Fold each of these.
Amino acid sequence: MRHLLSTRDLSRDQAVAILDIAEDMADVAGREVKKLPALRGKTVVNLFFEDSTRTRVSFEVAAKRLSADVINFSAKGSSVSKGESLKDTAQTLAAMGADAVVIRHGASGAPRVLASSGWIDAGVVNAGDGTHEHPTQALLDAFTIRKRLHGEASRGKDLDGVTVTIVGDILHSRVARSNVWLLTTLGASVSLVAPATLLPVAIAEWPVSWGYNLDAAIDSKPEVVMMLRIQAERMNAAFFPSAREYSRQWGLDDERLARLPASSMVMHPGPMNRGLEISSNAADSSRSTVLDQVANGVSVRMAVLYDLLSGTSDLSGTSGVNA
Amino acid sequence: MSIKIVGATLPDGTRTDLHIENGLFVESGSASTVIDADGLVALPGLVDLHTHLREPGFEQSETVLTGSRAAAIGGFTAVFAMANTLPVQDTAGVVEQVESLGRSHGYVTVRPIGAVTAGLAGERLSEIGAMAQSRAAVRVFSDDGHCVHDPLLMRRALEYVTTFGGVVAQHAQDPRLTVGAQMNESALSSELGLAGWPAVAEESIIARDVLLAEHVGARLHVCHVSTAGSVDVIRWAKARGVKVTAEVTPHHLLLTEQLVAGYDARYKVNPPLRSAEDVNALREALADGTIDIVATDHAPHPLEAKECAWDEAANGMVGLESALSVVHEAVVGTGQLAWADVARVLSQAPAQIGLLAGYDTPFALGNAANVTLYDPSARRDFSVSDLRGKGVNSPYLGRSLPGRVVTTIHDGYATVLDGELVDQQTVAAAAQEVRHG
Amino acid sequence: MTARPVLQAADITRALTRISHEILESNRGSSDLVLLGIPTRGVVLAQRIGAILDGIEPGTGSVGSLDVTMYRDDLAKNPTRAPGRTLIPAGGVDGKTVVLVDDVLYSGRTIRAALDALGDLGRPRAVRLAVLVDRGHRELPIRADFVGKNLPSGQSERINVRLSEIDDTEGVTIE
């Protein structure tokens, strides 16, 4: 893999391959020496134009577990905030010898511009661009679902027939977009629930079913319910009248949690607004995968960095070379 | 200076010779310069009703000189320069300065456009009367870049401009519906995560404005029409007898929003590239006269304004150098427009709307000699070497386009010969001779 | 370029049986023995040896796998390789005698990687190496403790090991 910019670009086999490598990477976390030498001598740069401690740290841990060197470039207090352009920042990193650039940017498409510009030679990983995509989040969500469903027997499996309902601000959510493409590629059946103001234009052309009513969605007993964070600022642009109304209509409260089958899992990419889109009980229940998602994030990001950096080209999937 | 053009094919198809002396078309005469126009189409000098020359204030993007040169190589002999300069063209002083620069450089006739509101702020009218009566004789008024969105202000503007025989050219974009908009609102914008610019934001303003124009009996011109819905509104208004005219850019006749998918900011423009259905509706409207003219909306930007993330990039494309070829490709090649129609939409009609004298009857004896010779047979890959302005933000780089401007003659002297610009000193001298000769 | 048979199915069985006895003899019994096969065919061989050991002294055959992909010294020179599974039996490797099992010993680099991988997993009391075929041409100072067959070979020759658990046939050929 040369770059990971979107889950739209991943085929089913590529996605399963990454999830399988992530299984092996997860094993490393259980050892005393939580390191593999695979990326020794490689330099990974975290280029974060948007604040995000959790994602940045997740990538940092992933890179370090593979013995790579990590450089953190965050927007605040750096030349970036003084108005240095994306182009100049990228070329500075190239001059420093970055092998991979993990970029989070407020503008949709910035990772694509970086990857196709010719300013750098490094592999580019999209850690979230505007409202467009957040591919490693979708991968760790898929990994989490697969792990919860199949446990130790997860390797090689996709998500065929799994029912997933995503609830919240779909319009502005890069997590939703990445998940829609990836989960459907893996064979899952995806359904979206939101007020009409928060559903994208031309939603009918997406490979999903959709509706406005969360209660109806819960009564259809989905195996996975994924709650998205709602931003209060959206109220000012008249997407919904108030936090209270939003919470009543589309929040996963205790009553809805109780109606959800015991085997269903509750997911949230974080950070959570407890009491707004998800109740504390729902967030802390045994059905919640929130902490798993965080842990799995490191394994999945290790798999992505390994695939991007360890070899000369794409995942061959074979290991039959004479030694 | 006297020129004889031999064997030119006029827009109506007839072959003829053209004689030019002392800046005017004449019946016949000896010629110091003879141009062989065999196989070339002779068009009346092209007139662009919508250009951004950027001077004063944004000379890093373009100047009156570089913009004029870009216009000349594109076959233009007159351009109307939009008012969003710095300082804004909202006083007699600034418009006279721009007009004077154009006149002394001499490549094209520069007609400054006056701002509708002071500073383009949309609060109060600018000194429209002063600009109309200045040496620049402004007749077209526009806040282009911004919409005159306050309905009361738009009404007053339409009325007041009538006092001086002018026309308001509206940039139709409801600001409340397009906050932070980046591209056409569509399935693609949903997928790409770019804020949408819905067609209704253009159509609703045009609908309001044609009714206002009808109510106060004023002329209205609509800039860069980009949607099928807008075409429907204008068609309806014209049928009612509203005095509305409309323009379409070359890029809206050829390019669609699909080009945005790679986030290459060369394709970022306002109004945005739209769907294939919109492109087809615009072509048909140009053919049937619902849209009166083609205007380039030539909008040069420096490199750093386009070599960045989409959200951060400036809106606009350069278009003077490529306009005729793109129109050829989009509507002449498809058989929807003949060369006589091209002469109408790129020369006679824009001059008429802008009240620019001397372009009503092409090649009429005694008129100022403005003529463009175009070779329709050539085909080339458009590249940076085809540009003459400061901006290289063209969406056609690397694209195969038909045709080539071979000669441009402005007020009886050549600004482009053998496909190349005549040098500055020669053109400036010729321009001065016409003024004083 | 026809393949010459070197070991038939029966030869392989005899070799593995002999190796199993040698392991028990050198270890003075079966306590604290852990067999780790190197994927892919090393794992099959380790399982067979483990079964044989279990037949001789029941409860002996503690078998797992050790994937060395991440520790290879040629990662950057080849297309990305998918790792295999590492499965350490309950009880781990600390203080145990680990017997690495592979099908062919050649340059020795795979075993070098295996030693590094093992080092990150714990501290065995001792590490031994059992291979079905030793074909020479060592590039590192590595030697096998238990060898099924010594097979001197030219560098241009290919040695193919086929095991019925994963291949259509059973046997070792050289071509």
Note: Chain C touches chain A through 30 residues (CB under 8 Å).
Amino acid sequence: MFDPIDLNWFISGLSLSVPLIFAALGGLLSERAGVINLALEGMMLFGAFVGVAVSWWTGSPWLGVAGALFVGGLLGLIHAWFSVTVRANQIVSATAINLFAAGLTAALIPAIWSSSGSSDAVNSFGPTSIPILRDLPWIGPIFVDLNAFDYCALLLAPLLWVMLYRTSFGLRLRSCGESASAAASVGVNVIRIRYQAVVLSGVLAAAGGVYLSLSELERFQRNMINGRGFLALAALIFGRWRPLPAVGACLLFGMADAYQLRAQTRGIAVPTEVLQALPYLIGLAALALVVGRRAAAPAGIGQPYVKD
Amino acid sequence: MTRGNDALAEALASATESIRSAASPSGSSKLLGSALSFLAILVGALVLAIPVVYLAGSNPLDAYGALLSGSVGDRRAIAESLISMTPLLFAGMAVAIAFQTGLFNIGAEGQLVIGGLAAGYAGASLDLPGPLHLVAALLAGFVGGALWALIPALLKARRGVHEVITTIMMNFVAFSVSQYLVKPGGLLVSKTQPQATEKAASNALLPRIWEPTRLHAGVLLALAVAVVCWYVIYRTPFGYRLRLTGANAKAAEFSGISTKRTIVQAFMLSGGLAGLGGAVEVLGVHGRYFDSFSPGYGFDSIAVALLGALNPFGVAVAALFFGMLRAGSIRLQSDAGVSRDMVTVISGLVVACVALTPLVRRLRSGATHRRRGRPTEPSDGASIGLDGSRPVPVTDPAVGGSVGSV
Amino acid sequence: MLRMCGITKRYGTVVANDRIDLSFAHGSVHGLLGENGAGKSTLMKVLFGLVTPDEGFIEKDGRRVEIGSAADSIRLGIGMVQQHFSLIDDFTVAENLVLGHEPRRRGLLDLDSAHQQIQELSDRYRFRIDPLQRVGDLAVGARQRVEILKALYHGAEILILDEPTAALAPHEVDELSRVLLELREQGRTVIFISHKLGEVVSLCDRVTVLRDGAVGGEREIEASEREPGTARTDLVGELARMMVGRDLPEPPPHDTVAGDVVVAVVDAADGERLGPVSFTISAGEILGVAGVEGNGQTELIELLVGVRRCRKGRIELSGDDITHWSVRRRLESGLGHIAEDRHGTAIAEHLDLAHNVTLGFDRIEPMARARRTWLSLVSMKRFASGLVTRYRIQAGGVTDPISSLSGGNQQKLVVGRELCRSPLFFIAAQPTRGLDVGATAFVHEELANLRRKGAAILLVSLELNEVLALADRIIVMSDGHVAGEMASSDVDTVTLGLWMTGEASTSTALAS
């Protein structure tokens, strides 16, 4: 059914997990600071859309990325405002963002391009092969086909780990998620840190989205995120809110996604629809298998902080 | 007879008969307050949608005018509004009941699809006399939706997995299942119609009630179901258990309620209602199940439930409004050139406005009273009520025992 | 040298602090004594910058100072350890202490130098704290020392301790007093807020008594008056009078004799940290459970109520084996339960009174009618009205949300509701926590009434005095087991303390 040591499978799995990695790490930041972020899906969608729109308009995919990141940050700001300042129900406000994003991005396709389902094709990124690493035996080919984004995603996890556990910003961020009142009692500016974390999560989620639209599909399609924002959350939970395990879970989902794509082209006997459902089924299974999950979540997550 | 009875009889006997409700607001002023919140949210969403309308290449006058004419402009439009209202009422009720129990059922779309599929299949393949066939097909829809909600329900009750993610996953699985079953060569696909099941038998269809429009009896069924739901939620012990579980799951446990069982029951009821909505749409409008027959009713229903303040009658009014939006969106597209997805945008804005209610409440109480020391606002920030005078469900994502973090 | 002059704070019509003048000297342990609601916490919140006074000012070393926030007071060298610790369980001691003022080296956290500093500090005051340990794994006494260490680490010369012994066993109180002595020797000032007369006398050099928001009296305490004897008794009486304006009442006599065994718990265990536990309660008897928080009391109550599964042993109620009975069955068979965490467990805040009193009654007449297909709102409202009248609860209407009631009135409603189960077996867990004097007296009286009527009562309380005053027999829980049992008339605090910290078994205690 599959070749165990198939580098191509690994590479395509890697590529497919990149949007999940960005989104999951974004979710990690937000939730570690104490704010539930279910709006990753909407943020990814907006990122994907704006990336394509700006790239189409300006001709430059890099400007597209910049635009996407900016809009992602903006959405993060909105979710932060709802969650931290308004102290609204964080799930409700995230649902609002998701619905709004789904509707708006779909509604604007015909307004900008003439079709109703997807945009025109846009310029994209080429692969960035790394000089010395690409000549390594066995694993060399990995460093040929990946582009700058992929490397970013891979570097992001260890970087985030260092940030969370070895910097004072990370310590304060985690304290906001564990106990906002304890953090505030020693002078940590809980509100500012939560805002920063959620805005960053928006930026990262948008990065995941724009990767999907600019780098993989090279266009924007209606509802193209297709639940990946929630798969990223499942990966986060499965990875117990820790950067490296969460990325591992994203890789798992990515490999499953890659498998179903390859299986379709290889004419495997399993029907395509079942394969299409595979990532979601694995997501469900992953969630079902997580034991003692309550103990792993940041202790103060979802609880709004009220200044006396 | 248990000991509790004796004590109760004693307590009641020594009580004064007059109920001390002089200080609490009367029923009619509560209603006024709710109506005002409803309108405020609606107007807020429509106003916020104006810049989006411009972005989409039109202007508010044309766009809202088209919406209006497409929804109430003529007899056909009104009928279409009511037709769209029907599945929204079922799904809105489904989401509302889940919310009352403290559950976020975002899976109404998938449950709707499976319910419609089951009903379409039952309508075409069963052979029962008279109205029995229709009842059986509707029942199949209900059961299909309920079963589709079972996995998220069990995961939540047994493993504490947060239902937002699981129900959304189930949605995608439902779409795959649907595509698989009615694709060319699929198990249930019709021989004459692609991407659909066979046409249901004529006695399994919901009759038209307003010729020459498409309006069918489903709308009456929906209203009847809304009344039944109101009764179940507010006037039965089962409904009490639902609401208490939503208000404070731990207190419910300590008072003898099995929250695990209640969660599963509520979830399945919710899924069943959504499935029924799909069934009604299939049997009343199309006569067969089509892949992608739902333009997103399940997602709109989240907004419908919240706008309706989780109360069956509020949900009915909200469903009517969104039904009008859906019906009017055809004209919106043809006359004003704005995509029908605008309805989803308005959904999102409605939910956003609902999310803002704690802010509004705080501003109002800050303006009318000076700080009295004890804040009246619930400090967990997770309540989704519209106005403080009505019992509202509270969900705390980190509450003990039954809820997992997301 | 710290002076508070003319401090006044009003909350609406309530005067929490009424022109209070106080001064604190270097190198002393100064007690602030008063009942719940006397104004101690407010005064200290003023000192710590959490509350701004309406009138009055503060002087430090002769100079006027403005304390507008906690940061201001920390800068002035004032530290506060509150009753509810603000520590992060998942962090180590070091991480908790450096949070907010993290030492850095080349952009990254420098935890090594922090570890060193903290170890030095801990050694200097003999705190016995390991900076690398995870706070969540520490016992309560150790966590409190971490909090004190935190204040010292931030440079506090003046330490405010708010009810520091509330969660400590007598043995840990000794440890704390050693630490306080050490602090005093090194010139620090400790302000010791408490409502426990005995401890204030034992630990403080000087005590100020607050009563109804004003200074009720002030006194130096000589070393001779600390020893048990007439001097101490006189001092205690004098302070008590200052505190309440009258002599303390005698504890009520235990005049009834217990009947047959109603509740029997035999080797019950939950398969985790609780058990095996065995004890009995007879009709007309109050069994008090003393013990430091976190030793299995909560789990025991959950076991008895039925929320926690009993995996070994059995529980019997009036001869029936109820070990595997559902919660509902137990409630309907005469179990009443005042939960220790009212908001989490006993009421639903956003529902109204009528719905809240129906908890546990939703399946029986007259609330549920017509074979449980109908819920009678009228009966629910009538029940609620009945309770409101009978227990003189201050409430608006029965359809108002229960959150509109004060804490004391909510508790009265809960107590009334539970009593209406006509209980054979009544569990009262921390029944007077957070209540004012009047509500506390009400609860105690109802418990006494219930006892007279022949119910078996389990009283779990962290307030040792409450347990001693009400219970006929006392058991002590430590580490999920019953460490010892004695009649309340035979109680000796040394043995109790040893039991609480699990440092002696019953037999050695009896032998000593």
Note: The first strand of chain C starts at residue 2 and ends at 11.
